[in-house]
Amino acid sequence: MSAKPRILSGMRSTNDRLHLGNYEGALRNWVELQDQYDMFCMVADWHVLTTAADAEVHPDIAANSLAIAKDFIAAGIDPAKSAIFRQSDVPEHAELALLLGMVVGVGKLETNPTFKEKASEVTGDHIVSYGLLGYPVLQAADILLYKPFGVPVGKDQAPHLELSRDIARSFNHLFGEVFPMFKDLIPSDESRSKLPGLDMRKMSKSYDNCIYLSDSAEETAKRIKQAYTTPTKIAKTDPGIPEGCAVCQYLKLYSPDWERQWAEDRAGERGCSQSKQELTEVLNEYLRPMRERRAGITDADVEDILQEGAKRARLVAGETMYEVRKAMKLIK
Ligand code: ATP
Ligand code: MG
Asked: Quick check: helix, strand or coil at residue 315?
């Protein structure tokens, strides 16, 4: 087994595609960290059911999970270095979630802002499930099983990670120091840790304001054409406000020439369509290696990689569970 410190992170397979925000906030860090650390990349399929268990909204989780794993590989996660696995292939996640559930107060879960928000969205005959209330316990199990050095995520996940640490502290206090604390690995640059969407709200699949990693170059061009720019900039000569313009925000991230482009936008020396055109070119160039890698992998390859990843994950998870069972005096 590798002597490198471990890193673990995951993405829910609520749909079949990751967006540029998922990449900039989390996945890009995973790719960058995989040489230095023993990286575990999880497709969190059980977590989908915390918000989508009703038959009428139930997505094809199996197909989505395969597609998300393909996105990981296309983005540059190398299965020879990193373990890519599906949560439901590693039953230790369920066992640890059950046991951690014994040390978490219901009050803490009921006051969790994400739970309150998601519970308030439940309408009609639908129920607020025990699974939704308990998703932070499952998330804590996902992380703690791997005793990671750090967890690379976007900024919105910081409170969740704090809750996982809280659960680890409670467990350690009651049963001994089984779980070491871990770091949040969140990009320091706000435009990456919380990438704006094409409408300048946070990029999120629920807002339909995304650029998807699996979009073709043409689809990307089309989406950029619809992006939000300075609303008072109608004519080319009207001054723009790059700070509030989605296209300028992306130019800052992807174009080496962004300072000149911003200055021209501000001075009314360029039109928004020119900025969109230039952004399309640099962004498509940025996404090109991902498209090339994607074209070289089949679903069957991804399934094999997931099986292999689950074996590696279960080795680590099994060791941790042995310690947990001992600490809780379930075994001698
Ligand atoms: P949902 O709309 O269902 O919340 P999402 O698009 O926000 O979905 P998640 O599955 O919640 O995606 O997030 C997966 C990972 O991507 C997390 O680490 C999260 O912090 C990160 N992430 C999501 N959106 C962004 C964003 N706009 N900028 C940076 N990171 C993001
Ligand atoms: Mg989210």
From this structure: helix
CB 285 within 8 A of CB 111: no
pLDDT digits over 148-161, tens only? Answer: 999 999 999 999 99
Q: What are the C-alpha distances in Å from 38 to residues 30, 116, 142, 321? A: 10, 35, 16, 19
Which atom of ligand 1 lies nearest, measured to the CA of 195? 28
Report, at the CATH architecture level, how domain 215-292 is classified.
Answer: Orthogonal Bundle (1.10)
> Dihedrals φ, ψ of 230, to 5°?
-60, 120
Distance 203 CA to ligand 2 centre (A): 9
What's the pLDDT score for residue 90? Answer: 98
E-state strands within the chain:
6-12, 38-44, 83-86, 150-152, 183-185
In this predicted model, what pLDDT tens digit does every residue of 181-194 receive, in sequence order? 999 999 999 889 99
Do 286 and 254 contact (CB within 8 A), yes or no? yes
**Distance of alpha carbon 220 from alpha carbon 216, whole angstroms:** 6
- 237 alpha carbon – ligand 1 mean position (Å): 37
DSSP for residue 45: -
Answer whether 30's CB lies under 8 Å from 68's CB. Answer: no
Strand order, beta sheet including 38-44: 83-86, 38-44, 6-12, 150-152, 183-185
Q: Which residues are catalytic?
A: 118, 202, 205
Domain made up of 6-193+299-327: CATH architecture? 3-Layer(aba) Sandwich (3.40)
Q: In ligand 1, which atom is closest to the CA atom of 18?
A: 6
Reference 248, options 316, 191, 204, 322; nearest CA is 191
